[in-house]
């Protein structure tokens, strides 16, 4: 079962390493990881995608809470949160194929980020599933390079960020 | 004031009386500040690993935070083993390391290593101090984090230029640690539920771990056990947390625990785990461990709840108030406990500890029996051990009735822990009789700290259960590797431990018979000096009972019957 965790950490040296090291040491696998600033200059947000059982997820949350730099751990529940990812895709694009590629890109809302003599770079922001789909669409044309940010998430606008759910009584 | 002086003022403000360490290049300013004067005593170890274990022994014997100091690079890496040990056994430890000057960090400078990076998986937290103005709040935070929540090690890495920098010192009164929120109290309704479950159980048992000692909750534990007439098993880390002469003490669970203790734990219908973590050396195969038991788990660390065994009634919080409330709320049904207690007593009579008969050779178990006999009349005795067979025999044959009287390396199983831990314990409790029960393999890993014991006037008695082998390895090779003995023979003669002791300025004894051992122990305990007793024991003795790794309690292997006499 896949889960997305949104973790707020103090913006201090080594904070990310402490989190990822805990995952490595305890044998938890990270599917994707995105790190960046938040509305507070002294706080960073780490969005972590993990594939694990519910009991393991509880362990991960509890182990993360023990890290001194970790301020909050929240699971982003599907349906109650927004998840997005950015992808850059460099695709082979001889002149004869460009029109077809542009049509595909338009259909999914991908933007043309750069254009060269025999290839183009698309940028696409969407749910990770939308990006997966676009990736498969352009792959037959020759996907030369792909970079994805890993998913980023926030709880829905109707929900204000809560205190971390007390896992245990 | 310089940063180095500030570190000492911080330690003084924290009430630290002894620290353990070794100077070196990157920590020179701190040692220079010591020369300028401080109320903190510095004990000069012979190896940083020794300094770290001394700080652990100090912490375990006193209940205070242990402090050790080392220089950068190899000094710091030599601390890695004690840090890992303290991490596994939840020993509060503040490690202060020197680091190369700030502008050299990252250049592979002489004696540079990334000790904060190396230790990330084995510390609660660590700090690389980048500005001298942060130093006081970092040191204060270090002590706070080490001793609050689940205790453990922290590391403060201080570049040399930060130690030398001048600033206006003041020790902060408060701290800002927004991410550090250890639980302050247990959930009251959960405790009530636990009390009801305990009262309703037919065969309840308290499974007590080292957390009770860290929580200073032994009197609450005693109150709970007596009120509910609850039998108590104590893990290796909790030996002494409940009086072992008490009728409710039901021994020690796990791989080398007595059969009756493991039966009591495994046949219980309700286990109250108190500051214990269902370690594999206690449970054996988890799926076969106490299959019929409801689990009440009391712990300050939420992450221990349901980590190994699902907790039916978890209570996260500091054990002292949690146990206190549980004891107050428990309404035992009069007489209900007695059949279960009688059953455990029957098992105890049926399955006593046994070892080999008289063949004129000194048996290792006998060494522990004699040590127990000759220390029984002393008020304040602290035992430390190394790791291996002698450690397990010490668990089985020494009787500890007081908290903090048995100090050992449990989780990490660090050979060589015993001697430096004894020195640290003696520094914490100068009036106590401190005895290290060691193996000949362990002794040779940290023997150089005998010099520290002698020269720092921290006398300890070291009893080497000398079987000339890496005994526990030998036992495993014998039992599980078809007797293919591989690289285990140390010999009983090299080194000559008594002569070696004398070379260090200690008293040395060699004992090959019961009488010689008794004589050596009596002389050593009376001497007030550092002593080493080389007790040459039967090298073929194995430690029983034994539940093989990954097996269940019912698979226990007992002492071969035709050779055994009841102890």
Helix content of chain A: 25-40%
CATH superfamily of the largest domain in chain B: Thiamin diphosphate (ThDP)-binding fold, Pyr/PP domains
Write down the Rg of chain A.
Answer: 19 Å
CATH architect. name of the largest domain in chain A: 2-Layer Sandwich
How many structural domains are formed by the residues of chain B?
Answer: 3
Provide a count of the helices of chain B.
23
Strand content of chain B: 15-25%
> Which architecture of the largest domain in chain B does the CATH hierarchy give at level 2?
3-Layer(aba) Sandwich
Helix percent of chain B reads: 25-40%
Number of strands of chain A: 9
How large is the share of residues in beta strands of chain A? Answer: 35-45%
Count, helices of chain A = 4
CATH homologous superfamily assignment of the largest domain in chain A: ACT domain
Please report the two chains with the greatest interface, counting residues with C-beta closer than 8 angstroms to the partner's C-beta. Answer: A-B, 24 and 27 residues
Regions of chain B with pLDDT < 50 over 5+ consecutive residues?
A: none
**Spatial strand arrangement across the major sheet of chain B:** 2-1-3-4-6-5
CATH top level of the largest domain in chain A is: Alpha Beta
Task: Work out the oligomeric state of the chains in this entry.
Answer: heterodimer
Structural class of chain A: alpha+beta
End-to-end separation of chain A? 25 Å
Question: Could you explain how this protein is built, in words?
Answer:
The complex is a heterodimer of chains A (169) and B (567). Chain A has 169 residues and is of the alpha+beta class. Chain A folds into two domains: 2-76, Alpha-Beta Plaits, CATH 3.30.70.260; 82-152, ACT-like. Chain A, domain 2 (Alpha-Beta Plaits, 2-Layer Sandwich), CATH 3.30.70.1150. Helix content of chain A is 31%, strand content 40%. Chain A is built from four helices and nine strands. Chain A has helices spanning 15-25, 54-65, 95-108, 128-142; strands spanning 2-10, 30-37, 43-51, 70-76, 81-92, 111-115, 119-126, 143-148, 152-155. In chain A, helix 3 (95-108) packs antiparallel against helix 4 (128-142). Chain B is an alpha/beta fold and 567 residues long. Chain B folds into three domains: 3-164, Rossmann fold (3-Layer(aba) Sandwich); 188-350, Rossmann fold (3-Layer(aba) Sandwich); 354-544, Thiamin diphosphate (ThDP)-binding fold, Pyr/PP domains (Rossmann fold), CATH 3.40.50.970. Chain B is built from 23 helices and 19 strands. In chain B, the strands form four sheets. Chain B has a six-stranded parallel β-sheet with strand order 2-1-3-4-6-5, with helices on both faces. A six-stranded parallel β-sheet of chain B has the order 14-13-15-16-18-17, with helices on both faces. In chain B, helix 17 links the parallel strand 13 and strand 14 (406-407). The longest helix of chain B has 15 residues, at 48-62. The N and C termini of chain B lie far apart (63 Å). Chain A binds chain B through residues 9-10, 13-14, 17-18, 21-22, 25, 55, 58-59, 62-63, 65-71, 167-169, and chain B through 116-117, 120-121, 124-126, 128, 145, 149-150, 177-180, 187, 189-190, 301-303, 305-307, 314-316.
């Amino acid at each position: 079962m896949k889960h997305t965790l949104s973790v707020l950490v103090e913006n201090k040296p080594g904070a990310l390493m402490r989190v990822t090291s805990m995952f490595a040491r305890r044998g938890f696998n990270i599917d994707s990881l995105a790190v960046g600033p938040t509305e507070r200059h002294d706080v960073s947000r780490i969005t972590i995608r993990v594939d694990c059982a519910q009991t393991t997820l509880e362990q991960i949350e509890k182990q993360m809470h023990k890290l001194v730099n970790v301020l909050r751990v929240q699971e982003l529940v599907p349906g109650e949160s927004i998840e997005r990812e950015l992808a850059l895709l460099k695709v082979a694009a001889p002149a004869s194929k460009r029109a077809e590629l542009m049509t595909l890109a338009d259909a999914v809302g991908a933007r043309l980020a750069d254009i060269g003599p025999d290839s183009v770079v698309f940028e696409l922001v969407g749910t990770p599933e939308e990006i997966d789909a676009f990736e498969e669409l352009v792959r037959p044309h020759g996907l030369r390079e792909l970079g994805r940010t890993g998913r980023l998430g926030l709880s829905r606008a109707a929900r204000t960020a809560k205190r971390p759910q007390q896992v245990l009584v | 004031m310089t940063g180095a002086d500030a570190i000492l003022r911080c330690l003084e403000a924290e009430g630290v009386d002894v620290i353990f360490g070794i100077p070196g290049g990157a920590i020179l300013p701190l040692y220079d500040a010591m020369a300028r004067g401080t109320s903190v005593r510095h004990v000069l170890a012979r190896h940083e690993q020794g300094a770290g274990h001394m700080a652990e022994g100090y912490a375990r014997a006193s209940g205070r935070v242990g402090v050790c100091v080392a220089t950068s690079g190899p000094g710091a890496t030599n601390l890695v083993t004690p840090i890992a040990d303290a991490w596994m056994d939840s020993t509060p430890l503040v490690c202060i390391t020197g680091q190369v000057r700030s502008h050299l960090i990252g250049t592979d400078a002489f004696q540079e290593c990334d000790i904060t990076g190396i230790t990330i998986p084995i510390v609660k937290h660590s700090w690389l101090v980048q500005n001298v103005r942060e130093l006081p709040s970092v040191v204060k935070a270090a002590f706070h984090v080490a001793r609050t929540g689940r205790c453990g090690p922290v590391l403060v890495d201080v570049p040399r230029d930060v130690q030398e920098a001048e600033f206006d010192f003041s020790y902060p009164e408060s701290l800002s640690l927004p991410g550090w929120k250890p639980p302050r109290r247990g959930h009251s309704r959960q405790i009530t539920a636990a009390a009801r479950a305990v009262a309703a159980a037919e065969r309840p048992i308290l499974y007590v771990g080292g957390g009770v000692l860290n929580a200073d909750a032994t009197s609450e534990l005693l109150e709970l056990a007596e009120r509910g007439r609850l039998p108590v098993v104590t893990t290796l880390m909790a030996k002494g947390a409940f009086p072992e002469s008490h009728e409710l003490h039901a021994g020690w669970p796990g791989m080398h625990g007595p059969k009756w203790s493991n039966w009591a734990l495994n046949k219980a219908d309700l286990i109250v785990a108190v500051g214990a973590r269902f370690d594999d050396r206690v449970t054996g195969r988890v799926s076969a461990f106490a299959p019929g038991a409801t689990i009440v788990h009391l712990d300050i660390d939420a992450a221990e709840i349901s980590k190994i065994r699902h907790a039916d009634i978890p209570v996260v919080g500091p054990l002292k108030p949690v146990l206190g409330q549980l004891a107050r709320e428990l309404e035992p049904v009069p007489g209900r406990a007695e059949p279960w207690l009688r059953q455990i007593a029957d098992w105890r009579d049926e399955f006593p500890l046994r070892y080999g008969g008289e063949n004129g050779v000194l048996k290792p178990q006998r060494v522990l029996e004699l040590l127990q006999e000759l220390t029984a009349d002393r008020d304040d005795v602290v035992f430390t051990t190394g790791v291996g067979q002698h450690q397990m025999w010490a668990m089985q044959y020494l009787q500890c009735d007081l908290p903090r009287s048995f100090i050992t390396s449990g989780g990490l199983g660090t050979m060589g822990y015993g001697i430096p831990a004894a020195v640290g314990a003696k520094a914490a409790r100068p009036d106590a009789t401190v005895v290290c029960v060691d193996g000949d393999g362990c002794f040779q890993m940290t023997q150089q700290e005998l010099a520290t014991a002698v020269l720092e006037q921290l006398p300890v008695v070291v009893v080497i259960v000398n079987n000339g082998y890496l005994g526990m390895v030998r036992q495993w090779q014998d039992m599980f590797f078809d007797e293919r003995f591989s690289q285990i023979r140390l010999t009983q003669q090299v080194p000559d431990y008594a002569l070696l002791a004398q070379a260090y300025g200690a008293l040395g004894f060699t004992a090959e018979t019961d009488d010689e051992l008794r004589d050596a122990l009596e002389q050593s305990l009376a001497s007030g000096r550092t002593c080493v007793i080389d007790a040459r024991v039967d090298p073929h003795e194995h430690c029983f009972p034994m539940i093989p790794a990954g097996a269940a309690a019912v698979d226990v292997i007992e002492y071969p019957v035709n050779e055994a006499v009841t102890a």
